From TrEMBL:
Keyword Cytoplasm: no
Residue ranges constituting the Na+/H+ antiporter NhaC-like C-terminal domain according to the UniProt record: 173-290, 318-485
Annotated keywords: Antiport, Cell membrane, Membrane, Transmembrane, Transmembrane helix, Transport
Topology class, membrane: Multi-pass membrane protein
InterPro entries attached to this UniProt entry: Na/H_Antiport_NhaC-like_C, NhaC_Na-H+_Antiporter
Domain of life: Bacteria
Annotated GO MF terms: antiporter activity
Name under which the protein is recorded: Na+/H+ antiporter NhaC
Length: 495
């Protein structure tokens, strides 16, 4: 019996939808106050406090008005935290990769080579396509953005593109692959949660996914063509500064290639990311000993480098995994780009995830989330309204739970019986869930995806949001196709 079934089997009555909106009102008002006070720094702790405040209000209403037991609410919270446990470990490993791939010179090498082969006239569209291909092969938007995405951000800066535009192209491509790859955990989760065969789910998603990507690529290509030309000397200066700070060699590309081999061999994501970080640390010692020394001695100038001792190597590698890796190149833009915070940089994200899933757990345990969903369901009389309600719920779950996995599971479980009762095939549900819960998570600043990608790319969520055209278009495309009625299949009646 899952969380929702346990909740419904023990609750006396559901809160009304009006009461269910109270926690969201508290969350919204408190977020407005916190953002007004702290601005962009609200995600460093203020937003988390708002989530905990909304959680307390939800629990109080549930326990004192609807006589819910704390044990039930706590069980739902623990179920949610358990569901995101592996994601938290992946977050830490991504932080380690950010540090090791930078200090080893892998990302600088990708930037230098990319500047030579990607022309500004097609850069945004090319960045989107590259991330889409890598994400399809890896099945992970997070891995794609943390590796290739970081390099593309550097290339975009060197070619004079606004970081918001570049991040939008990266995120659009990465989430295209995350959405349709058979290796993607969200794709598998959405298909299994709705009871749809995996490849049936993927083929059916193409109806909405391909048009969304096509429109996105046209926009990015037009934006690239209209971008003012940048003098070659600027890109050369950027590459020269990187080559002066790092030993750039094709051998460094062996780590991304070996990482790709592990992915193709379907090695679990946690093991793959760990191996990628360790391999990069070894290459850092082999090819960038001066950079490793600089990380170990951030207070000393690079000119004081005496050679890499055993103890300096140990300290430098350890700090690269978990701490700050500020390396001075003489170029402020590059210094900002290659500075990483390792696993420590992910702590605020983990803080946010735990607070978000706690709020989501209490919402589920109190029955408020189901009450609001049933409000949508009562309005769903046709395919378009049913899909619209599903899409709206997927987005809402991303906003209030702060995690796409929980959003996928909650939305699927809440609507599965309704789709069956209305006579629609489960693949319509699985597609609507992917078109909303999967792709919009990265657009919400306090969602684990939005927070992670903003941290990795060093571009605030609200800065890249307007340019994530694929992610914005996907929910609307899902509703549009349902309104047209194209390939909306009914269940076959059994005799």
């Amino acid at each position: 019996m899952d969380t929702n079934e346990r909740v419904q089997s023990t609750m006396r009555r559901l809160p009304s939808w009006q009461v269910s909106l109270v926690p969201f009102g508290v969350l919204t008002l408190s977020l407005v106050v916190v953002i007004k006070i702290f601005g962009a720094d609200a995600l460093l702790g203020g937003s988390q406090v708002c989530l905990l405040l909304a959680t307390a209000v939800t629990a109080a209403i549930s326990m004192f008005v609807y006589k819910a037991s704390w044990n039930r609410l706590e069980t739902c919270i623990l179920d949610n935290i358990r569901a995101v446990g592996s994601a938290i470990l992946i977050l830490f490993l991504i932080g380690a990769i950010a540090g090791t791939w930078m200090v080893s010179g892998i990302v600088p090498a990708l930037i230098c080579y990319g500047l030579k082969i990607i022309y500004p006239a097609v850069f945004l569209a090319a960045a989107c396509v590259i991330c889409a291909l890598v994400s399809v092969m890896t099945g992970s938007s997070w891995t794609t953005i943390a590796t290739i995405g970081v390099a593309l951000i550097g290339i975009g800066i060197a070619q004079g593109f606004d970081p918001g535009w570049t991040a939008g192209a990266i995120v659009s491509g990465a989430y295209f692959g995350d959405k349709i790859s058979p290796l993607s955990d969200t794709t598998v989760l959405a298909s299994s949660a709705s009871g749809t065969p995996l490849f049936t789910h993927i083929r059916y998603m193409m109806i909405t996914t391909v048009p969304s990507l096509a429109v996105t690529l046209v926009v990015f290509l037009a934006a690239s063509l209209m971008h003012p030309p940048v003098e070659a000397s600027q890109a050369d200066e950027f590459a020269g500064a990187l080559e002066a700070a790092f030993h750039v060699t094709p051998w460094l590309l062996a780590v991304p290639v070996l990482t790709g081999v592990l992915i193709v061999k379907k090695v679990p994501a946690i093991l793959t990311l760990f191996c990628a970080a360790v391999m990069a640390a070894v290459f850092a010692l082999l090819f960038q000993p001066q950079a490793v020394w600089a990380v170990a001695h951030p207070d000393l100038p690079a000119s004081a480098y005496p050679g890499l001792s055993f103890w300096d190597a140990c300290k430098g590698v350890a700090v690269t995994f978990y701490g700050s890796t500020a390396i001075q190149t003489g170029n402020a833009a590059i210094d900002s780009l290659i500075a990483t915070r390792g696993m420590t940089g992910m702590l605020n994200t983990v803080f946010l995830i735990i607070c978000s899933v706690t709020f989501g757990g209490v919402l589920a345990g109190s029955g408020m989330l189901r009450s609001l969903t049933e409000l949508f369901a009562r309005l769903a009389h046709r395919a378009v309204t049913l899909v619209g309600a599903t899409v709206g719920t997927g987005v809402m779950c991303n906003v209030v739970t702060g995690d796409q996995y929980i959003s996928i599971l909650l939305t699927s479980s809440l609507y599965k019986k309704l789709y069956e009762r209305k006579g629609y095939e489960n693949r319509l549900l699985s597609r609507a869930v992917e078109d909303s819960a999967t792709v919009t998570s990265v657009l919400i600043p306090w969602n684990s995806c939005g927070m992670t990608q903003a941290t990795v790319l060093k571009v605030p969520t609200l800065e890249y949001l307007p340019y994530c055209f694929f992610n914005i278009l996907s929910p609307f495309m899902s509703v549009l196709i349902a309104a047209i009625g194209y390939k909306i299949f009914r269940r076959k009646t059994e005799e």
